Amino acid sequence: MSAPQIHLDAHARRIGEVILSVEGVSLSFGGVKALQDVSFDVRSREVRAIIGPNGAGKSSMLNVLNGVYHPQSGRIRFKNKEFSDMNSHEAAALGIARTFQNIALFKGMTVLDNLMTGRNLKMRCNFLQQALWVGPARREELEHRRAVEEIIDFLEIQHIRKTPVGRLPYGLQKRVELARALAAEPSVLLLDEPMAGMNLEEKQDMCRFVLEVNDHFGTTLVLIEHDMGVVMDISDRVVVLDYGRKIADGSPEEVRSNQKVIDAYLGVAH
Amino acid sequence: MAIDIGTLDTFPKLLVHHAQARGERPAIREKDLGIWQTWTWKQFADEARFLACGLAEQGLKRGDHIALVGANRPRIYAGIAAAQCLGAIPVPLYQDAAAAELAFPIRNAEVSHALAEDQEQVDKLVEILPECPTLEHIYYDDPRGLRHYSQPELMSYDKLLELGRDAYRHDPGFLEGEIAKGRGEDTAAMFFTSGTTGVPKGVVLTYTNLIERSKAVADWEGINDRDVVLAFMPPAWIGQNIFSYAQPLVAGYCICCPESAETVTTDMREIGPTYYFAPPRVFEALLTQVSVRMDDASALKRVMYHYFMGVAQRVGERIMEGKPVGLVKRLLYRLGDLLVYGPLRNVLGMSRIRIAYTGGEAIGPDLFVFYRSIGVNLKQLYGSTETSVFVCIQPNDKVKPDTVGPAVPGVELKFTPERELLIRSPGLFKEYYKNPQATMEAKDRDGWFHTGDAGYIDADGHLKIIDRAKDVGALTDGTLFAPKYLENKLKFFPYIKEAVCFGHRRSMVSAFINIDMEAVGNWAEKRHLPYSGYTDLASRDEVYELVRECVEKVNADLSREPEIANSQIHRFLLLHKELDADDEELTRTRKVRRRFIAEKYAPLVEALYAGRQAVHVEAQVKYEDGRSGTFSADLKIRDAKTVAPAAARKAA
Q1: Domain tally, chain B
Q2: Is B450 a domain residue?
Q3: How would you class B636 by CB atoms within 10 Å of its CB: exposed for 0-12, middle for 13-18, buried for 19 or more?
Q4: Residue B267, min C-alpha distance to chain A (Å)
Q5: CATH of the domain at B601
Q6: Is residue B457 located within the same domain as residue B524?
Q7: CA–CA separation, B492 vs B499, rounded Å?
Q8: A242, A264 in Cβ contact below 8 A?
Q9: Which residue is closest to B34 within chain A, CA to CA?
Q10: How far apart are CA B430 and CA B204, in angstroms?
Q11: Environment class of residue A270 by beta-carbon count within 10 Å: exposed (0-12), middle (13-18) or buried (19+)?
Q12: Do residue B434 and residue B558 come from a single domain?
């Protein structure tokens, strides 16, 4: 596919210091070794991709990063704090948001309400105040609504604001999920196959939004993607996993010409 | 209620007037971040003042041209007003035009400044910068995505406004002086016609043209400052611009800008406009939406809908026009209004509509009657960019689906012997920009504008447009042959997508027809009629029967119009492929290129007239990837029954 019409060089985007690093992480489920001694880092404001063939451990890696899985060994450093593991609530509070491969939205709720749930961690008023809609709760809700509306405007989903999510086509649901993750104003956003199952046009739209999120909000993006074209077009650096091990790490060009990567994707004669 | 605008002869003067007369009333609303935001007349006037000063600081002078590229946004309209304050000439351009299409008007009008809505438009302007040496400044409204652009020509709207605000503070007299210098006979704006033939032409309209026409119609229709309009068509189209810029400035009503193109339906429901204009395809899309949703509704609702729509069709229009209707029917309609029409109007956002116009192309009678029967006062309007839109409008009490109504006050109509419509009106354009040749061809010495449309005035004094004059021909017996008129009649049937009629210098009329794949496909599925694709479906006898019925209905219709009764369609065939712009059979705006088709399919035309029952066709087809192949098939030809005009007259 052709690259979307956005030109951004690394300099203009102010890629910064390492914000998140993974050192020697291993994860196994019983006898299955999902991740073996994986290390890599993510710089602030970069688009970092994790790729690999089916079963390579990409989603497991993402789940480790936001505290769903707890690795048996290895360390994660995030904003100069070190964790051997964290739970997902902590991860969210620290500014890590994510989207899911198989869309996890509240299907019966409208797009707007789904996005408001994304603000959940930012709400300070207690349940009673919110229920009675008094003083600070009212002001707070207005602020959150405004933040949500800005994201709706940013992702161009005004026309479905009041539509229940379950009625939306798949591509739009993906966009709503991105919107909800953004509503939490994360510093790091983990995207699990954001383009999976989309047609070409939807993919191009999504690429544009991913790049614009990165540019506009300065969000650091870690994404897992199957579509090699997409990854090579929008990522700054790429990690390649195969059978739970890191086999390559570098710029898209470096990764593309790496023999191990080619073998992993195309298979080798044994 | 007449509108008192006294001697105010330019839009900036009118704007200043409204800012004083109704400063706190809403002028423009826009939905932003989910909430309707209002500019009052006072705010609108101030915005235009500051912006004008900013533009003056940037070097925009009287007589310069400024392009505006964007959707309906308050700031685009402020840009138009600001340019006019300085005596500069706004040139609104279509926001969905490709970059290359923008280059011609910008070069032609020597545009030096441009106001773009967003990154998309800026990208296009930047792309054509090398071919447009006169373009020096590009301003943008929405800065999103433009942070890293370093072109020296670029400046944000906000910065421009800031510049202007400072300048105005230092010397407010300068701008008020510039506004006072404007005269009615000055050029107000320039609109580029889409140009189906050859290059686009810049139509130059003066303040007097636009103000006089807007006022005449506002007075005639009772439009006032309590009216509300939703602006959702491109502002570069005069049909939008006159309703969302010229007429509001005359009558003082409020316009609303939808949030985005996708939200128009919702926004319309929220705003509830009282005054509405849309081309027929918009009304058609709305009706389709209603029909689809009705098909999914519960059985009870479906039954109610169909029953009451039947009632509406019989008496709805008569009730709206204040004609006598029996008491029982009147009560039934009232009940229907409570249960069906009212809620339906509400869903469509048409509850408050007093006057709705449609125009630009022919509207199907069923479609037209649908809206009128549920109580929406939909009327047809005839006009063009060159006539400042308003030429003919149907009056409230006498609306006929097949005419465009009588001339509005101030307009004179006459016809050439070839039946071409000529118009003389105060709204007539000044000239085509830098194109005296075209101006002379269109506007003769006595001030008559040659529309290129053929038509006649019917018994009620209503204008009836039948076709483009150059397409109108005659059968060998001298009967008028208006192919587009016939084709439109055919196309109003949902099963027929395109039609091409032949008959000029022939003894009878015959037609090529394209079926509508979706409608006929559905029809076939309901009848368990298997088919493999378009060609297969179009060759089915059952489908030929279906189309024959449509053709015969058209013939019955035609037999009632003495002028063209003899141009009934005698024979037809269903083409083996859909006419396609890629094969040059249609223009990009989906108009049939009749002559090209007649040449390309000459053997088929001959077969129609040779009385054959089938014809073998071999054709070159171009695939989307540029390759081409050949295709052959046997096409059937069928006769359609015609109705003797005399018999119809007796029956009527």
Answers
A1: 3
A2: yes
A3: middle
A4: 10
A5: 3.30.300.30
A6: no
A7: 11
A8: yes
A9: A149
A10: 6
A11: exposed
A12: no
User: SS3 for A44-107, per residue?
Assistant: CCCEEEEECCCCCCHHHHHHHHCCCCCCCEEEEEECCEEECCCCHHHHHHCCEEEECCCCCCCC
Phi, psi (5° rounding) for residue A132?
Answer: -90, -10
CB within 8 A of B98, min separation 6: which ones? B124
User: What number is the ipTM of this complex?
Assistant: 0.78
In a domain, B234, yes or no: no
Give the contacts of A46 (CB within 8 A, at least 6 positions apart).
A10, A13, A15, A220, A221, A236, A237
Q: Which domains are assigned to chain A? A: 1-95+186-270 (3.40.50.300), 107-184 (no CATH)
Pairing of the two strands B509-515 and B496-502: antiparallel
pLDDT band, residue B44 (cuts 50/70/90): very high
Q: Integer distance in angstroms from the first to the last C-alpha of chain B?
A: 42
CB contacts of B263 in chain A (<8 Å) are 158-159
CB-CB neighbors (< 8 A) of B34 in chain A: 145, 149, 152, 158, 161
What are the distances in angstroms from CA A100 to CA A185, A223, B285? 17, 11, 36
Beta strands in B238-285 (DSSP E): 254-257, 275-277
Closest CA to A38 of A30, A26, A28: A26
Chain A, nearest residue to B264 by Cα: A159
**What is residue B45's predicted lDDT score, i.e. its pLDDT?**
97
Neighbours of B530 (CB within 10 A): 9
- Residue B284 domain flag: no
The CA-atom distances, in angstroms, between B157 and each of B47, B48, B138, B162, B409 are 11, 12, 9, 9, 41
Strand partners, A248: A240
B-chain CB neighbours of A115 within 8 Å are: none
The β-bridge partners of A133 are none
Q: Whole-angstrom Cα distance, residue B221 to residue B275?
A: 10
How many A/B residue pairs have CB atoms within 8 Å? Answer: 35
Q: Of B41-45, B259-263, B578-582, give the range with the top mean pLDDT.
A: B41-45
Query: Do residues B476 and B463 both lie within one domain?
Result: no
Q: State the sign of the Cα–Cα–Cα–Cα dihedral B238, B240, B245, B251.
A: positive
What is the distance, to the nearest Å, from the Cα of residue A30 to the centroid of all Cα atoms in its chain? 27
Residues B260, A212: C-beta atoms closer than 8 Å: no
Range of the domain at B457: 403-469
Q: Which two tokens stand for residue A198?
A: 């989309």
Same domain? B554 vs B445: no
Question: Do B187 and B73 share a structural domain?
Answer: yes
The verdict on residue B34 lying in a domain is: yes
pLDDT tens readout for residues B588-621: 667 788 888 999 899 999 999 998 898 888 877 7
Asked if A253 is an interface residue toward chain B (Cβ–Cβ < 8 A), one would say: no
Taking only the tens place, the pLDDT of each residue in B433-442 is 999 999 999 9
Q: How confident is the model at residue A67 (pLDDT cuts 50, 70, 90)?
A: confident
pTM of the model: 0.84
Among candidate residues B449, B469, B489, the one where a domain is terminated: B469
- Whether B483 and B456 map to the same domain: the answer is no
| Chain B CB within 8 Å of residue A2 CB | no
- What mean pLDDT do residues A247-253 have? 92
Interface of A with B in 107-166 (CB under 8 A): 145-146, 149-150, 152-154, 156, 158-159, 161-162
Query: Residue B265 and residue B340: Cα distance in Å, rounded?
Result: 19
**DSSP letter string over B384-407?**
-GGGTS-SEE--TT---TT---SB
> Which among A150, A159, A162 is the nearest to B262, CB-wise?
A159
Provide residues of B within 8 Å CB-CB of chain A. 33-35, 123, 144-145, 147-148, 259-260, 262-263, 266
* Strand ranges in B536-613 using DSSP code E only, listed in sequence order: 569-574
Alpha carbon distances (Å) from B301 to A22, B38, B285, B375: 61, 39, 21, 20
Q: In what order do the strands lie in the sheet with B420-424?
A: B412-415, B420-424, B449-457, B463-468
Shared domain for B517 and B639, answered yes or no, is: yes
